[in-house]
Amino acid sequence: MSVDRLARMISSRGLTEENRRAVMDRLNEASVDPGDPLAVMFVMELAMARMPEAMARRMRAELSDRNSQLVASLRDTVRDTLGDAAAEAARDLRHRAARNLAALAVVASTVLVGLGIAWGAQLGLDRRSGFLEMLAAHPEAETWATLIAANPSVERTIAEDCAPDSTLFLPQTDSRPACLVPLWIDKAPAPTPEAFPARVMTELRHRVTTAPGWLFLAIGVLGTLAVQPLIRWIRRNDTGHQTGR
Hints:
This protein is mostly helical. Helices cover about 75% and strands about 5% of the residues.
């Protein structure tokens, strides 16, 4: 066996220069010529000894590649998951903020309406107190009290019978409007059951026509705010049903 053939065998087995020197040292120790066929035994021995190390390096390299791929995949998954979670959290936060603002608006509107009603009631009480004091000091207080008791709806009577196009309306005298207001001089009899619904409708119609505009505005705002959550709930359920289909 020639030296060149031994060198080619060492190279084909993937042995390094350090391994080649180790083979030559073993041959010298055993007094074996490189061209001797026994030299092959030393080459095979060293190649077999290196095999586990080479396999271990290859496995470590493959494991490192797989770990890199796994880390990259996990990083992408975590990034996508966190992105979706952040978007969902932002949407939920906006929805909660909208609900809280709507609830705050309802509470604020309710408080304002309540304060307005209380203020109006207090003004009414103050005016009524002043009127009662004036009536008590009037020399014909008893007569006026009788007329008031017999005509509980003088304001409605004036609104209905004293319009400018009414036959009871008189031309202005001294720049003051006048009207032939029909007044009862005695209390009305107790209403019959048949007349009660008509009386209720008349009273309701009078209340509606004489109510201040801000009251209807407040009722409209409160109604709109109260209906909005119901509309959103209906739309959300309708979207859920369509998605389920």
